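Example (one chain per record):
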Amino acid sequence: MNIFRVGGAVRDRLLGYPHHETDWLVVGSTPEEMIKNGFTQVGRDFPVFLHPESKEEYALARTERKSGPGYRGFVVRADPSVTLEEDLERRDLTINAMAIDEAGTVIDPYGGQSDLEAKILRHVSPHFVEDPLRVLRAARFAARYRHLGFTVATETVALMAEIVDAGELTHLSTERIWVETEKALGERHPEVYWQVLADCGAVAVLLPELAVSHGISALSRAAPHTGRTDCRWAALLADLPERRAQEASERLKAPNAFSLLATRISGGRSSVKTALKDATECMALLKLLDGLRRDEPFEGFCETLVALEQHSADAHSAVDLLRSARDATQQVKAADFVDQGLTGPELGAAIHAAQIERIAGLLD
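Predicted structure:
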C-alpha cells in the first residue's frame, strides 16, 4: 500500500494557512489488510479507517459513479486497482485535488498549485455537476479565502448554476445545508458565501427571503464586528419582518438559539430608540429579550445591534443604556416588599411597577 496526505491539509499547507485535521488516502490496499494492520473501520458508505494510535482517518482510494439524484446518489468503487489520480479526479476543486507522498513530494495532476497561485477556485472536472453539495462547498471556500483574494472561476459558477437549474439542491438534506451554512458563518467573510450562492441562483432556492432584503450587505457590515455565528445569522435576517425571519430559520433548521436571536433582532431592533425614551417601552423590550432572567438572547441582541452599526458611538451608548436599565430592574427584589405583606399577583405588580420606576429614574 501507499499512503498520501490529501485534501485540505495539503491545500492549507501550501497556502501557509492554519489547519487542524489531516486526511489520509491509502492506495493499493483492502479493508482486510487495513484491519489486519490494526485499523478500525468506521465508514459505511465507503471504507474509512481509524489509525490504531493517532485515530486519524485513513480512506481507501475510490471512484464514484453517479447513479441517482442528490449527493448520496453514487456507486462507490474502492479496491486496490483505484489509482491516486482517479481518486483525486472525483474531488470538487483543483485546490482540494492534490496529494503529498511520504517523501514530501506534491502530486498535482489537475493544476491545484497554479490555481492557488492565481487565487482561483476551479472545478476539477465536468463531474462537478453530479454532487449538489459542491455548490455550498465552493461558496464556503470563497468565504474562507476571500481575504487572500480568492474568487470562484466563472466557468465553475456556470456549473453551479447548472446544478441549481436542474433542481439538484432540493435533494440535499436540510441538516447538511445548515452544516455548510454554519461553517460559512464562522469564516472571515461570511457574506461572500451568500453572494456566491446568489450569483448562481442558489439563494432563491435556499433562502428566498434574501431576495427582498438587504441581508447580505447587512452581514457584510456586521461580520467584522462580531465573531458569534448566531449574531451573524441574526444580522443576515435583520431587515426581515419577525415572522419571515422565523420562517427562514425554521426552513434551514437553524438551532433554537440562532432562530430566537434572529426573531428578536427582527422584532425588537426598531423599538430600541423608543425604549430608551420610555420606561414602560424599555421594560417591554427587556421582557421580550428575557433579559430579567438570563443573559441570552439579551447579550446577543446587544452585540448584534452594535455590529450592525459597525461599533458606532451611538450604538455603544444605546446598548450601554439598555444594559444599565437591565441592571436597574434586577436590583428590585421580592424581599423589598415583605413589610407590605404582598403576595401573588399583587406582589408581581408591585415588583413590576418598582422596576419601571427604576428605569424611569435612569432614563431621566
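Caption: The longest strand covers residues 2-6.
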